[in-house]
Amino acid sequence: LALCLADLSRTIxxxxxxxxxxxxxxxxxxxCGSRNGLLGLVSVGxxxxxxxxxISRPVRIGVLALLVVSIVGFxxxxxxxxSDIQGSGLTGDASSESRIxxxxxxxxxxxxxxxxxxxxxxxxxxxxxxxxxxxxxPHNTLVQVFAETGMPGGxxxxxxxxxxxxEAYKFFKINRDKMADPSVVLYKYLIIALVSFWVCAxxxxxxxxxxxxxxVALIVALRENILTKQQELIPTCERERPSVLSNKSSLQxx
Length: 254
Hints:
The chain is mostly helical. It is built from 9 helices and no strands.
């Protein structure tokens, strides 16, 4: 949101104020030692900075270089210093080793219940029966949704969240000359947020986060709104063109 507001702002002071707000958020993520947060910072921060259009290229390159140095030199070191990563064994919900065990258990659930799954939010309570740790979340949205809703539900979830990205690719390919339009800028950052979801989805439980479905709905609605406005301009141009041609023909006849 901060990067989007910075990209939309026309005043230099306001623009760099929002960039500073984004830097504060990035700093908080770096010091918290969250692996998922670090992935989100890489995807949202990196893509947001790369595709900003109203900030000069040297500034963007400098900010991006600072982000990379901060992640490599400080963020990763913070993550590796966590006790649950240094230790061994299944130490609880934060354990890295337990996640692999839970992922395998979810895959077994999908194979045993391919049509309907084990039920919404029931995978953690069925872990023991499939070789996992009872009560421990899988920390992988994709394997969780397939385990709990079966193959049909899993495929629907993937299509529901991937299709807007495919449509966005086609949209940006056609509308490269309209990237400065405020609606398109907002659409761009919503897409970056959805890309970030998929980057983080393999290491977190996001299937029951309502904000995900709100994000997909906003993306679809905003895209339709932009396309509707573009379609409204086409008939006007077509109406003007015949009148221009008729004027030319009348002038030639005279």
